[in-house]
Amino acid sequence: MLNHYPTKALRVITPYEAWNGHKLMVSHMHVFGCLAYALVPSQQHHKLDDKAKKCIFVGYSVGYCLYHSLRNTIIVS
Fold this sequence. Notes:
Layout: H1 15-20, E1 35-39, E2 52-60, E3 64-68, E4 73-76
Antiparallel strand pairs: 1-2, 2-3, 3-4
């Protein structure tokens, strides 16, 4: 993650840009604490049940870390 910030040696660009030749894509980043939905697999819900759980975004891991407040659990989606 340190390669994503400008340094004194490169002044204007980041080490990521210097190494790869293009800017880092950040469109997939989310604001911590925002509303997010975790998809429920089709094997775990019935026809009229919700297809997603309403959660709070808390961070990044292998996927997105979401806090499900009704069950007090962290879901990696």
